[in-house]
Design goal:
The protein is mainly α. It contains six helices and two strands, in the order H-H-H-E-E-H-H-H. The chain has a two-stranded antiparallel sheet with strand order 1-2. A hairpin with a 5-residue loop joins strand 1 and strand 2. Helix 2 packs across helix 3 and helix 3 runs antiparallel to helix 4. The longest helix is centred in the middle third of the chain and has 24 residues. The protein is elongated and about 80 Å long.
Length: 176
């Protein structure tokens, strides 16, 4: 049995030790640089870069995610891009493709093709692996349903109209 992950949130519903832990993390990381708003250069103009731009405003509001967590955010954005590319490939080529075996005559000329079954599109495996990564990294960054609710409680006081809502960020929208 796996131990539960430590909860780092601030909510009146939490136990006192959980809120103290959150305060300790905030205090210990207050001198760290906030997560940069713009994606790394290699991500600019890509699906991963657009994911970065949609996710970072919410992560920055949490006060816990800092630029030191950049590699985790990069990995999440890259996993989102892989998932999306796999999805596009499946849309274009289907989930599976037919397999044929060529029948040749004694001169080596192909005279017929026999259907032998189907094979899975490798993009399906790519999507599956990306989804597992997205779930794991989202949980680490506080983007699971439970942790999103906790982030909302942390950011409820924010009145910055330029920051998209959590629902907008996580729904993907047309910009992905």
């Amino acid at each position: 049995m796996m131990p539960r992950k430590m909860k780092v949130t601030r909510s009146p519903d939490n136990k006192a030790y959980q809120n103290r832990r959150t305060e300790m993390v905030e205090k210990a990381t207050e001198d760290l640089q906030p997560l940069q708003m713009s994606p790394p250069n290699y991500m600019k103009g890509t699906i991963a870069g657009r994911a970065w731009q949609r996710i970072t405003p919410i992560l920055r509001q949490s006060t816990i995610i800092k630029n030191a967590d950049r590699s985790t955010v990069e990995a999440l954005c890259s996993a989102i891009a892989l998932y999306r590319l796999g999805f596009d490939d499946v849309q274009e080529n289907g989930i599976q493709t037919p397999i044929y075996k060529s029948v040749q005559n004694n001169r080596g000329e192909i005279i017929d093709r026999d259907f032998v079954g189907f094979k899975k599109n490798p993009a399906v495996s790519t999507m599956d692996a990306a989804i597992r990564q997205i779930r794991s990294l989202s949980s680490e960054l506080g983007l699971t349903p439970t942790s999103r609710a906790s982030l909302l409680s942390l950011t409820a006081d924010s009145d910055d109209d330029d920051v998209p809502s959590l629902a907008d960020v996580l729904s993907g929208g047309d910009g992905w």
